[in-house]
Write a structure and sequence with these properties.
alpha/beta, 3-stranded mixed sheet, 8 strands, globular
Length: 348
């Protein structure tokens, strides 16, 4: 976008909307025009930027540029709320909540627990009427998130337009189901996820399958058997909670041991399939200095898309960002690219 054209159009718009008589003199109009032009120049020069695409694999980069072009386009965050903390706080309240009709399924785990899966079968799919071969997207909500989160609903809406089936993996004990064992979940343990993947694959062995995750409950009576829940509930930070609860539940000697094991820095080198990661450098929970860029470059299967703005699961865009976000567009294009042109990416 040409910022000179935009500022000229903004000036003409303001002149047509604001009258000198409103301020009593021409000074007020000049101030408004001056501020508007200055803000537009600042926004276009310092805020709206193309994301940084990080990958050591040139073929992966070319694949993304061709089939997921949004990762190379300038991201224009909402002009009045581009700052990371504001985007993070506003997103849950300002974005719409598409209507989604789920089919719930409870599956049992090897330790006697249960996991709640919410299916969007998309039986009206025009592109994939055969359910046995309908592409399936496993959606993984963030910390404490469930299938009711607005960003999950938008991802399902995007998938619906493409004809895909979705299933949301709700971590133990947070979607309203009974907690049968004194165990919830943590960022370093993938046993439940592995069980869910095997379950889905057994149900639809002929259907293309991929997963998309975002960011990373009560049942007190069951948990009191192993934990001092009064002490746990006094936690004032995530670290205090993890120290008193999560790290103890999964047998870590210290909280630092848990965080080290959960860090993606330890796992990126072993990623064996193509993975696209979207992160804003102004993310309040995963800031730019904590993003393992150099580690990602060591694995040809990993590509990072780093935006200058967006906050944590924000990525709001447009004057009134009620509907599609930049994250939604990245998700839709990449999922479609993998399902419809996967032979090119998996032959890398």
């Amino acid at each position: 976008m040409d910022w000179q054209v935009l500022t000229r159009e903004l000036s003409l718009y303001l002149e047509s909307q604001v009258r000198v008589g409103l301020f009593g003199s021409g000074v007020g109009l000049s101030l408004v025009l001056g501020f508007g032009v200055a803000y537009a120049c600042y926004y276009l020069s310092s805020i709206a930027k193309k994301p940084q695409l990080v990958s050591s694999n040139e073929r992966f980069c070319r694949f993304l540029e061709e089939y997921c072009p949004v990762v190379t386009e300038t991201y224009y965050p909402t002009i009045w709320c581009w700052e990371g903390r504001v985007q993070t706080l506003l997103r849950p309240f300002i974005t719409s909540r598409p209507q989604v009709q789920y089919r719930n399924e409870l599956i049992r785990t090897a330790d006697g627990g249960q996991i709640s899966l919410d299916w969007f079968d998309n039986n009206d799919s025009l592109y994939y009427p055969d359910a046995s071969t309908r592409p399936t997207v496993l959606l993984l909500p963030g910390l404490t998130g469930t299938s009711k989160e607005s960003y999950i609903l938008h991802m399902i809406h995007q998938s619906e337009t493409l004809g895909y089936r979705c299933v949301v993996f709700n971590n133990r004990g947070i979607a309203g189901e009974e907690l049968l064992t004194p165990r919830t979940y943590c960022a370093a343990n993938t046993e439940d996820l592995e069980a869910v993947i095997h379950h889905i694959h057994n149900l639809h062995p002929s259907a293309p399958f991929m997963a998309a995750g975002v960011s990373m409950g009560g049942h007190r009576q069951m948990l009191e058997k192993l934990f001092d829940m009064d002490l746990v509930m006094k936690a004032r930070t995530v670290r205090e909670f993890d120290k008193q609860f999560t790290s103890v539940m999964f047998g870590y000697r210290t909280i630092d041991d848990y965080y080290e094991d959960a860090s993606p820095c330890r796992k990126l080198k072993s990623v064996g399939i193509p993975v696209l990661c979207l992160n804003s450098v102004d993310d309040v929970f995963s800031p730019g200095h904590a993003i393992p860029v150099e580690t990602a470059k060591q694995n040809a299967n990993v590509a990072l898309v780093l935006t200058s703005c967006g906050g944590h699961i924000g990525f709001l865009e447009g004057i009134w960002p009620r509907k599609c976000t930049y994250m939604d567009r990245v998700f839709k294009q990449f999922v479609q690219a993998v399902f419809e042109h996967g032979n090119k990416i998996f032959s890398m």
